[in-house]
Amino acid sequence: MISPNAASAPIARRRGRPPDPHARTRILTAAESLLNDAGYLGVTIDEVANRAGVSKKTVYRFWPHKPALISDLIVERSAVLPVPDTGDTRAELATLFGLIVEYLTAGHGRTLTLLVAATHDDPGTLNRLRDQVVTPRRDIGRRVLQRGIARGDLPADVDIDAVLDLWNGLVAYRLSGRPAALHRHTIDQLVELAMTGHIPRLPQS
């Protein structure tokens, strides 16, 4: 006989599969692998989900679109390497230029230009990319040039932003606009131009 209270008793809901605590890490790893294999344009949410062993819905639970996913990947996997203060401005400038080349050619920096274009209508993702990837690297370059100024090796009125733009821009252009090798002697010449004061200057007040 059924108890009169049985009808009013709450029905236990069947619980679904609990969230996979490692899903986000596996998705980022899969996205990095696909990015290395196929480049940014070859990355699709379908293939990322397939490699990570999750559903597309799981991927979209963490990121609203591909640019947001790749932006997080770059933020979390891009190491920011300092340029130690050695007291030798020429050597520090050469190290800085080398880090720019390495990041933009061999690291996730190759994807930055495409990401900036892809996130132009997503200020949140774009600002995070700039704040956590671009700005820390730019600050390292700024400190190197400021040390050179303080030592008297560089002119006091160096336009630091213009110098960093020129060096980063040259490397980026050699990768995309006119693909060509950037030889070591070219880097050495640009460093020498800086050391002899042949670099952009701030306007005179």
Task: Report what the structure shows.
- With 205 residues, the protein is mainly alpha-helical.
- It contains nine helices and no strands.
- The mean pLDDT is 88.
Q: Given the helix and strand composition, which structural class is it?
A: mainly alpha
Order of helices and strands: HHHHHHHHH
Oligomeric state, counting identical vs distinct chains: single chain
Number of strands: 0
Straight-line distance between termini: 97 Å
In helices, the fraction of residues equals 55-70%
- Supply the number of helical segments: 9
Give the SSE layout.
Elements: H1 23-38, H2 45-52, H3 56-62, H4 66-77, H5 89-106, H6 112-118, H7 123-151, H8 160-175, H9 184-195
Helix pairs in contact: 1-2, 1-4, 4-7, 5-7, 5-8, 5-9
State the gist of this model.
With 205 residues, this protein is mostly helical.
Could you list some keywords that capture this structure?
205 residues, mainly alpha, 9 helices, 0% strand
